[in-house]
Amino acid sequence: MDHPETATPLELSEQSRQRIADIIDRYPTGQSALMPCIWVIQEEIGWIPPAAIDHLVDTLGVTRARVHELLTFYTMFRTEKPAQYVLEVCQNISCHVLGAREIIAHLEKRLGIRIGEATPDGKFALHGVECLGACGHGPMLQLGKHFYEYLTPEKVDDLLENLRKDVVPRADTDRHLEEDA
Amino acid sequence: MSREECKILSARFGRPDGHRLKVYEAEGGYQALRQVLGERQPDEVIEAVKESGLRGRGGAGFPTGVKWGFVPKDADQVYFFVNADESEPGTFKDRYLMDYDPHQMIEGTIISSYAVRANLAFIYIRGEFGWLIDRVQKAVDEAYAAGYLGKDILGRGYDLDMIVHKGAGAYICGEETGLINSVTGTKGQPSIKPPFPAVSGFLGKPTIVNNVETVAAVPWIMIHGAEAYRAHGTEKSAGTKLWSVSGPVKNQGVFEVPLGIPFADFYRDHLGGMRDGEEFKACIVGGSSVPVLTADEMMGCNLDYESLQEAGTMLGSGGMIMIPKSADMVELIKVLMHFYWDESCGQCTPCREGTGWLHRLIGKLLKGEGVPDDLDLLDKVCEGMGGLTICPLADAAVMPMQSFLQRFRAEFEARIHETATPGSPSRWARGE
Ligand SMILES: Cc1cc2nc3c(=O)[nH]c(=O)nc-3n(C[C@H](O)[C@H](O)[C@H](O)COP(=O)(O)O)c2cc1C
Ligand code: SF4
Ligand code: FES
Description:
- The complex is a heterodimer of chains A (181) and B (432).
- Chain A contains 8 helices and 4 strands, in the order ααααβααβββαα.
- With 181 residues, chain A is an alpha+beta fold.
- Chain A has 2 domains: 14-73; 85-180, Glutaredoxin, CATH 3.40.30.
- Chain B has 3 domains: 7-230, 3-Layer(aba) Sandwich (Rossmann fold), CATH 3.40.50; 240-324, Ubiquitin-like (UB roll), CATH 3.10.20.600; 329-414, de novo design (two linked rop proteins), CATH 1.20.1440.
- Helices cover 43% and strands 11% of the residues of chain B.
- By secondary structure, chain B is of the alpha/beta class.
- In chain B, β7 (280-284) and β8 form a beta hairpin.
- The longest helix of chain B has 18 residues, at 349-366.
- The interface between A and B is large, with 50 and 64 residues.
- The site of iron/sulfur cluster has 15 residues of chain B, from α16 and α18.
């Protein structure tokens, strides 16, 4: 069947296609494989474009409505191309008590945007999020797979300065990479 | 007085190499699994866990062995889920367990799955723990390679597959039926109980959901015995508990202590008191969903299920949020009500609408637009929410709300009556 969305076909690496095949193999039903398969695509492309929805419908035999259901219910799934660096700052109670508000104010000032906005060049977005399980390490923010913790205005400045040069500094949760290398 | 050292779960916390299979094995890891698969029937494992007095560490504190016993013996297919969603504000202990010691959780999961005769186990980890998911996946791969997972484990005829499932940002998926529904590939909305998952869960089959900390205790109990486990803690609160402590105390972090120790000792010996210049005002002891206590009330409490309940709160997840005098209780409850409103899955009217009302009413107070009737209205909204919904999220919002109002009412009243509060002049007090 033809859908208007199918204009651009999905470009997906062989590795991701293999991961999807493995997931389908291991999960007991096509529908239960849906969430992990969405993740595979988002991890490669950064978001879920319309062509990815077609791909999921075709490969898993689920309805289009099912895919949309998950994409809209779960806050981490993205249906629009995100900024290059999405900074997600915890605004919940422990981080609040530890000074998250000052950190957010500082980020807003430095980036020249309000929380919930993105810079016009598409480089940074700033989001307020709920507790991320780093409460005793606050204030903190998430960037991609990692957490930057025990934030101070200086640490924020250092992070931004590096990101502007497209250097992603070592995160507080990063220690394993070198250990496991 | 000395700090009570007791490391059943946290022996490898802080160790850079604690997550490695080799290190875990060298320190006795996977010996429990060898013993169990070689010598004990599943029902014997369930009995031992019953005897140990182990209770669920995810929040509700239900006796673990009893829950396992609900799985019908003639079930053709059983599933085991580890709840690593860890989204309760103030809680970060499961992160430590998976970060520093993933194999302990994996071994505990294999034994637990064997006890309930499951052949497929899911570890459901919140999606925000991206780095941690990689770490746990690596450990699972190691366990497969070593023959602790897969077909015919250790040649003892037991098969178990283990899938690390990545969540995608929804607090409600921590609720056990929401979690199961999420893995089914739908919105993670809770289902009405009964039927309980132990009878009818994932794909309609018996399913046990346990918290990471709960399963992590199982290998130790298998090796040392129920008696040894009960030697820690109190009669009804057996064993040790991990406390995730956040707030301006001298030492934040995750601490393992026997259940039942006086909070005052824990505060002094482990937390080192508040940071200089801060004063201890209040504590939410079990994650954001339990009633807040004043510092004085806390100082008289012991840290176990029964004592905390007697004091008017709950042990919950053990996410201990330490609130300093400088904190504004109205602002804090706004943060929490925003959270519950944001995370309500929307199925039940009292929860969907009630959390919105609470959130908006507090917002009104903070904007200086509150009137005295608003405090009564807050109470009334709470009364219309508790106990009326599919899952306990509505109660989880009501408990902090009501306790904040009850114990710190003066701060709420000040928002209405004081025209002088900087930044929030009350229009009502000005006669507008
Ligand atoms: C709104 C809500 C959120 C919950 N979040 C979690 C969670 O993040 N982790 C967890 O282990 N249990 C959570 N629970 C409790 C689970 O429903 C369930 O009781 C628990 O996983 C059972 O495991 P246990 O017996 O080992 O504690 C939550 C419950 C509710 C109502
Ligand atoms: S109480 Fe709230 S979160 Fe729980 S099922 Fe009802 S609407 Fe959803
Ligand atoms: S409150 Fe910020 S990480 Fe938990």
